[in-house]
Amino acid sequence: MTRYLVPLGIFLAIVVFLGVGLGLNPREVPSPLINRQAPAFDLPQLHATDRRIGPAELRGQVWLLNVWASWCVSCRLEHPVLVDLAKTGIVPIYGLNYKDKRDDALRWLQQWGDPYIISIMDSEGRTGIDYGVYGVPETYVIDKAGVIRYKQIGPLTPDVVRDKILPLIRKLNV
Amino acid sequence: MYKLILALVLAVAVLPEGWAADARPTSDNPALDQQVQHIASELRCLVCQNQTIADSNAELAVDLRNQVREQLKQGKSKQEIVDYMVNRYGDFVLYRPPVKAQTLLLWGGPFLLMAGGLFALLRHLRRRRRVVDEAIAPAQLDEAARLLRGDRT
Predict the structure, then answer these.
(1) Is the pTM of this model over 0.90?
(2) Which one of A21, A106, A167, B70 is most buried, by most CB atoms within 10 A?
């Protein structure tokens, strides 16, 4: 009897491992930046290039940093979600315009709406590297002390906003 | 049809040259290029996860290669550059993951599997020997010996 049970057991174990493996998303690499200070930057603003901004100026509030680009297809998908979230006024959203051309970015915002308090221009993508960006769009939740608390890789969906982002913001705002 | 085949053959013949041109380093400092290549070949490209940033032409890989080059020029050591990458992208960026509690199964797993296999093999061999020992009775052995001698009576 064990003669059949042992191979069957091994087979079932492999099935379970492979089954779990199928459910994982290899594109979602856990960020080492969670619970660490948001990397500093000093970059020009998209709408007023003579003015600069960095995370130090945003201390004292919970805010979202959304990495986007006009060339990014999934950003279009995510955009209505951001616009809706901005309308609620629950959390200020700042945009990191990643490796984009200024004209394209401005046109994009004009066309689809601008959910951002300020868009920050990272044309070289250096700040993107500091934040470990590897697939646009990405969204960071940053707390009052300037610590990254959550990173969304890929587009925000209404589900993610409702189940992850909003509860976290409520908790951080207490 | 003939023309199509000819066109395909020509296209294939031309391709490798195009690729080689892509991969050729674009600087006049071969020693630095080699160092960049060496470090880049141990870092994973996160956009195309089964390639190193040395192999990949994804935009992020190009940026990261430039980052490696720049930091080498600033006199940073290999370890400092690797740490820089790990701080931003995590251990996943390393093609050779470090041995830690989290990666113990990754490193030890193959040895565990091999030990399991050896154990199963030994057990199987031992059991088979026992079966062989038990199954052949002395009378049968005599019979076999007789047959081998060519004694058919």
Answers:
(1) no
(2) A106
